[in-house]
Design goal:
Blueprint (H helix, E strand, L loop, with lengths): L1 E4 L5 H12 L3 E6 L12 E6 L7 H15 L3 E3 L3 H9 L1 H4 L10 H8 L1 H11 L6 E2 L4 H8 L6 E4 L6 H4 E4 L2 H13 L13 E4 L5 E9 L2 E13 L7 E7 L2 H14 L3 E9 L5 E7 L6 H6 L4 H11 L13 E3 L1 H11 L3 H13 L4 E2 L7 H23 L3
Parallel strand pairs: 1-2, 1-4, 2-3, 14-15
Antiparallel strand pairs: 5-8, 6-7, 6-8, 9-10, 9-12, 10-11, 11-14, 12-13
């Protein structure tokens, strides 16, 4: 029993390695950085480095193929979108050597390409924001006159709040931000900058449905809400809570059934001004807040592993409701330090942990990853301070 897992610096990779390792499965991690938190987990039994796929996809695939050929892993689990997309695209090269429980690229692109996702959602009755798909800057200029502002400009493929999303409050800003997205570097497989889409701004809370599918049939689903995000107002969850929301789960399952989905995915919604959900996107990968799902009772990494090895996994749709999970360091600490109300937010977090039983990412029986995160954060802070001081020397 052996698994090769990617994106060793990600917190969801660490969660998956711990989950599988606790069950006696040998897990080896690979990543693009020499210092990555997962490498220091006691459940990580080996480490490898690879070329960042966003820099050179073909070299990344060549290196990953070499790893699976030489080591005879049972299962290959890509975690980030930067590894999941190319491994899906070149999946046929891997399957003679290792099981790869991700959707075929023809299916995966329906989630990865937001234009395809929105169009499919409309076909099956899943509510979406008003969205436009201009094919040229001239079309953007025409659309700009008719829009209600603010609006959001998004690249068609890829994630990343800072890189792939811009906001505009008037036609002039829209043209400028549209050009900014188009000017970003990147390949068309992982990140598609050309012809960004324009979308109505939805102001409310972010809610997600995290799922596992086996060839178009659902095997697990869990709903959550993002209490705190980084950056605030829209970004990855850093304090999340499980919720029971049958309508939201139904929307997600309906859409992914239409896609004939396979593997894990996160379906992201935002609540509009009336409190109704609108589909934002489908992330065709493990979600950053995976630890909450595991703590709530659905062990997605193990279920995905079982599905890869045995062909299927038991269906699990029951989970603990109103369970909060905090990613304390560095993100929650950073959030509180940056808040206009730090004392209020710190007190709220402490009450969640000590009075309401919230769980956190700190695992004392496997503490080295947290120590590494602490050291790396301190290093980055010192590096920034020294760079600032150097300006005045």
């Amino acid at each position: 029993m052996s698994v090769l897992i990617t994106n060793a610096s990600y917190k969801n990779t660490l969660a998956a390695v711990r989950s599988l390792g606790k069950r006696g499965i040998k897990v080896v991690a690979a990543g693009k950085k020499r210092v990555a938190s997962t490498f220091y987990s006691k459940f990580c039994k080996g480490r490898y480095l690879y070329t960042p796929p966003t820099q050179n996809v073909k070299q990344f695939i060549k290196e990953m193929l070499t790893l699976v050929r030489r080591n005879k892993f049972q299962v290959l689990l890509p975690v980030g979108v930067d590894t999941t997309v190319p491994i899906s695209y070149y999946k046929e090269k891997f399957t003679p050597y290792v099981r790869v429980p991700v959707a075929d690229y023809e299916v995966l692109v329906k989630a990865h390409d937001k234009t395809k996702t929105i169009k499919l959602a409309r076909e099956v009755g899943v509510p979406t924001p008003e969205t436009y798909f201009p094919n040229s800057l001239d079309e953007v200029r025409e659309i700009a006159k008719e829009l209600s502002y603010p609006v959001v400009i998004k690249r068609r493929k890829g994630s990343g709040v800072e890189e792939g999303i811009r906001y505009a409050s008037n036609p002039k800003e829209l043209i400028a931000k549209y050009k900014e997205i188009e000017a970003l570097s990147g390949d068309s497989l992982i990140n598609e900058q050309k012809r960004p889409m324009i979308q109505e701004y939805v102001p409310g809370e972010i809610r997600d449905v995290c799922v596992l599918f086996n060839q178009g049939e659902p095997r697990a689903a869990l709903a959550q809400r993002r209490v705190w995000t980084w950056p605030p107002g829209g970004g990855p969850g850093i304090l999340n809570e499980t919720i029971k929301d049958p309508q939201l789960i139904n929307y997600a399952l309906k859409l992914l059934k239409r896609m004939n989905w396979h593997g894990v995915a996160q379906v992201e919604f935002k609540l509009d001004a009336e409190g109704k959900p609108r589909l934002m996107e489908v992330n065709p990968k493990f979600w950053g807040t995976l630890e909450l799902s595991i703590a709530a009772g659905i062990d997605f990494p193990y279920l995905l592993y079982k599905m890869a090895v045995d062909g299927d996994a038991d269906a699990v749709f029951d989970y603990k409701d109103k369970l909060s999970f905090a990613w304390l360091f560095p993100m929650d600490v950073h959030y509180i330090a940056s808040s206009p109300y730090p004392h209020r937010d710190a007190l709220y977090l402490l009450k969640l942990i000590f009075a309401k039983g919230a769980t956190t990412d700190i695992l004392f029986k496997d503490s080295r990853p947290e120590a590494i995160k602490l050291l790396m954060t301190a290093y980055r802070v010192l590096k920034k301070r020294n760079a600032f001081n150097a300006q005045f020397i």
